[in-house]
Amino acid sequence: MALKEGLRPRKRTFWRLILLALGLLGLLLLNWLPIFRKLEVFIPMGVCPAATMLQMKDNFTGVLRPWARPEVLTCTSWGAPIIWDGTFDPDIAQREARRQNLTIGLTVFAVGRYLEKYLARFLESAEEHFMVGQRVVYYVFTERPAAVPRVALGPSRQLRVQYVVRERRWQDVSMARMGTLHEALGGRLGREAHFVFCMDVDQYFSSAFGPEALAESVAQLHAWHYRWPRWLLPFERNSRSAAAVAQGEGDFYYHAALFGGSVAAVRRLTAHCARAQQQDRERGLEALWHDESHLNKYFWLHKPTKVLSPEFCWSLDIGPRPEIHRPRLLSAPKEYAILRD
């Protein structure tokens, strides 16, 4: 009997190692073999219950139309909408945002060579597509304010530049932004904006990105992972890390290239992530995907009130997908060998 009891922990460890190995193999196959990427379309996304669909409303778009997209998942298990093209009326969203007389902030970090490579296109495309007809204030964080390009801005749109110290490693640049954003949201940005979106600079807008995206707390489905089963998602699994998400936990894998919400909600998110990163540093740890790992832990603990479909932040490197009708924000070509030198 004692022998059997002693073998049980070993069996559990063995099967955990097998599952981990299968997960790593799955990640490699999905990332590096194009044929497996194409097979992703056969992984079911799930179905929103009919009762939930009938009750789905939004503060900006009114009654949603989740039944217009039966091929994709249009709600979360906690009742938040997943916004896909065709499920909302953009005109209603525009009118409601104007009625509320909102100012919408858009923050972006342009540090090192990322400034010359991406910032001009990001801002120019934002002027064409981001919250058109609304009051917008751009906040550019950079170590070289004088190098920020001059971009023609429309009525009721402003650009503010804030100096930040350049970190030595690109990983530290990524992680330091949570603390910087938290401070900014407690200052001028927080006083003049009602809602804020935080985005990576190595992207550009390709079609309308409007008030349909607004909500108290907004998360973005990761374009590279939105069809994957939960056990394959690249959460931080080191239990010592403040970003750790245990096996069987987690809802979706969210992209740190785009998140937002009310000033108060984003301030809570950035405070949590900055604090968790500091805890990891004190333990000599660094989460697998840096600030994105901590963002995913936060949204597991504090569910977003709106989730944006991959159409809102897409990568052309994935290839065409039938469910992606109208990409709104696209990843620019990456040149990490040059940019992160």
Structural class by SSE content? alpha/beta
User: What coarse outline follows from CA principal-axis ratios?
Assistant: globular
Strand order of the largest sheet: 3-11-9-10-7-4-5-6
Give the number of helices.
Answer: 10
- The SSE order reads HHHEEEHEHEEHHEEEEHHEEH
Radius of gyration: 21 Å
CATH architecture: Alpha-Beta Complex
Count of individual domains: 1
Q: At the first level of CATH, what is the class?
A: Alpha Beta
Strand count: 12
* Poorly predicted sequence stretches spanning 5 or more consecutive residues: none
What's the CATH H-level superfamily name?
Answer: Spore Coat Polysaccharide Biosynthesis Protein SpsA, Chain A
Biggest sheet architecture = 8 strands, mixed
What separation lies between the terminal Cα atoms? 60 Å
Helix content: 25-40%
Mean pLDDT: 89
- CATH domain fold name: Spore Coat Polysaccharide Biosynthesis Protein SpsA, Chain A
Give the oligomeric state of the chains in this entry, treating copies of one chain as homo and distinct chains as hetero.
single chain
Portion in beta strands: 5-15%
